[in-house]
Specification:
Number of strands: 4
Radius of gyration: 18 Å
Order of helices and strands: EEHHEEHHHHH
Distance between the termini: 33 Å
Number of helices: 7
C-alpha cells in the first residue's frame, strides 16, 4: 500500500491497482511504460473531482486506488440529501471528460511531433474521456449508477434504489455478453463482478 497526500486529501494506492492496469494495458514494454502513469494520473484526477466536490460540502474526503479503479469516501455521506450526493458522483466523470476532451483537441492540433507524445495523448483520451463516459452507465456502484440511484432515492425512497440495482444487473449481463463475444475478457469479468455484487445487494435487501 502506497500512502501520500494531495494537500489535505489522503491517498492510498493498492498494489492491485498497478497489476490491473498492466493487465488491461499494452503488451509491449514501451507501451506499458507509457500506459501505467497515464492510468494512474487519470484515475487520480477522476477521484480528485469527487474529493473536491466533497470538500465543498464541508466534509473531509479520502481517496483509494484499487484493483477495480478508485473510490472516494468521506464520513457523513448519509447526512447529504440525494441531490447533493448525485452532484458529487457527477464531479469525477465531469473532470475526467474535460481532461480527455482537452487531450483530444491537443491530439488533433499536434499533427507533427514525437510519436511518444501522440501515444500518451491517445492513452490519455481513452483513460479520461473513454472511461469517463463508460463510468456514466446506470450501473451501481459506477458514478452513473450512483447518480441515477440518488435521484431515484429522492423520488421513490428505498424502492428507487432497489429498482436501480435491478437495472444494474440487466445492464451488466448485457455488457458481459457483448464483451465476451468481442473477446474483451477483462471487461466481461468486470461486468460479471458488478452484476453479482448488485444481485447480492438485492437479495440482502
Amino acid at each position: 500500500m502506497i500512502h501520500f497526500r494531495i494537500g489535505t486529501i489522503p491517498v492510498r494506492v493498492q498494489l492491485w491497482f498497478f497489476v490491473t492496469a498492466v493487465l488491461i494495458g499494452p503488451r509491449d514494454v514501451r507501451g506499458a511504460a507509457l500506459w501505467l502513469p497515464v492510468v494512474f494520473v487519470g484515475v487520480l484526477i477522476h477521484e480528485l473531482g469527487h474529493a473536491l466536490a466533497v470538500r465543498r460540502q464541508g466534509f473531509v474526503a479520502s481517496i483509494e486506488l484499487h484493483g477495480f479503479g478508485g473510490a472516494t469516501s468521506w464520513s457523513g455521506a448519509t447526512l447529504l440529501p440525494p441531490g447533493q450526493r448525485a452532484l458529487i458522483s457527477a464531479a469525477g466523470p465531469a473532470v475526467g471528460i474535460a481532461v480527455g476532451a482537452a487531450g483530444l483537441v491537443a491530439a488533433k492540433l499536434l499533427t507533427t511531433g514525437p510519436p511518444v507524445v501522440s501515444e500518451v495523448l491517445r492513452y490519455g483520451v481513452w483513460v479520461n474521456l473513454g472511461w469517463g463516459l463508460l463510468n456514466l452507465l446506470p450501473v451501481l456502484p459506477l458514478d452513473g449508477g450512483m447518480i441515477v440511484g440518488s435521484l431515484a432515492e429522492s423520488a421513490w425512497g428505498a424502492r428507487g434504489v432497489y429498482t436501480v440495482r435491478l437495472l444494474s444487473i440487466v445492464v451488466c449481463v448485457g455488457l458481459c455478453v457483448v464483451a465476451a463475444s468481442a473477446g474483451w475478457l477483462w471487461s466481461a469479468v468486470l461486468a460479471a463482478v458488478l452484476a453479482i455484487s448488485n444481485l447480492q445487494a438485492v437479495r440482502g435487501g
